[in-house]
Amino acid sequence: MDTTPRIGILSAMHDEIDALLKQLTNVIETTKGQRTYYTGTLFNKEVVLVFSRWGKVASTMTSTQLINDYNLTELIFTGVAGGLQSDLNIGDIIVGHDLFQHDLDASPLFPKFHIPLLNKAAINTAFSEDLLKATETFLAEFKQHIDSSTIATFKLEQPKARIGTILSGDQFISSSAKINELLREIPQAQCVEMEGAAVAQVCYEYNIPFSIIRTISDKANDNATLDFPKFAKEVASLYAAGILKAYFEMK
Ligand code: ADE
Questions:
Q1: Of 8, 21, 40, 82, which residue is least crowded by CB atoms under 10 Å?
Q2: What is the pTM of this model?
Q3: How far is the CA of 172 from the centre of ligand 1 (A)?
Q4: Which of 3.40.50.720, 3.30.360.10, 3.40.50.1580, 3.90.1150.10 is the CATH number of 2-250?
Q5: CA of 158 relative to ligand 1 center, distance in Å
Q6: Is-contact 115 250, C-beta < 8 A?
Q7: Is the CB of 220 under 6 A from ligand 1?
């Protein structure tokens, strides 16, 4: 076990890890259970970085190993998500306030979405106001970080950030009917992805402060046409690095 207090950074995209690795110094790499954990110094903070992998089971395993092998002061999760609210555009950012597993339904034993034995459905995050401030700091100058042709390709004119509810489930959502179903049940939901609520539960059970930022990469609907690899490499990864830098500078 590494006893140095560290901020854990879990990223749902390889490109985010690559962008952060470019800034990481004093790197030590450890591979276990098909995951590679990178410790080092990032923007003057001691961190440990790891790719979450995709889906709730994979990200649960990664975060559990991370918490058990490192002395985490907090865990920050970065990645992309499908927007659920009609005013959200590609390139906007949701800072998680609370997270639900939208595909968890043990009724009639427990109400829909309730996590058995925890007696709650939503898991709250920590430090969301601070992360929102850092995100707004980054967005105020994002044109310095992102190529103008990329801004044009994805129409990233005025990206906005807000704090809100995030849904997670083992499903890539790409239908308006499914969006409507999710919003009927959880009307305040902002975006949907495949890991966050699982990692939030792990952190809750281990008592580790958890926070999450998700960049909207698509609108989770039938006509979400997006060059996903290009978005991950040229937008989401730079957002993650820029926001973490602003956040660490505030700490
Ligand atoms: N991650 C990014 N977009 C998503 C979507 N539409 N559904 C689930 N996870 C996602």
A1: 21
A2: 0.97
A3: 5
A4: 3.40.50.1580
A5: 22
A6: no
A7: yes
